[in-house]
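SECTION: protein entry
WANTED: fold as tokens:
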Amino acid sequence: MPDTGPRPLRADARRNRERLLEAAVRAFAEEGTDATLDAIAKDAGVGIGTLYRHFPTREALVEAAYRNEVARLCDAAPDLLRTAPPDEAMRAWMDRFIDYMAAKRHMSDALHAIIASGGNPFSESRARMMTATETLLKAGAAAGTLRPDVDPMAVLTSLIGVSLATREPDRHDRAGSALDLLMDGLRYRPTD
């Protein structure tokens, strides 16, 4: 009998997995690497056995939580375009990017441990983010609201810079102003 790959998760198992990932991100944000797996399972409303069935090691949980955050960020681009004009969708996505970077910072020690053990949690991140950024930029260019000549990598680099410059709690409110300034640079202005 041919192997058809892993079976899809049942609905309840999928919900448990999603709750575990959300609880893990919260725990790493609040407690860093001191977050316990027991506390994560409890916050998710499941037993520790359920956590280990989905994530056999702490590193597997950290990597899955990080990849889930990347997926949430990147999957938001087409969703935002369905509900807002492209320039507004881009600006909303930028806010989500700053939130993603904050979550990544809180998981940084755990992510570095994964890298030290030979894993690469970042292997698909850049390509997925480039695709999301390109999707938003192309939609904006097609609508005539964003410049058509913008390099997606320049946008990502700028977003990383804003995130790094405003990561301290007393500066986080400045991120919005910096993102507004970046958006002003991205908007299309016809020359006469």
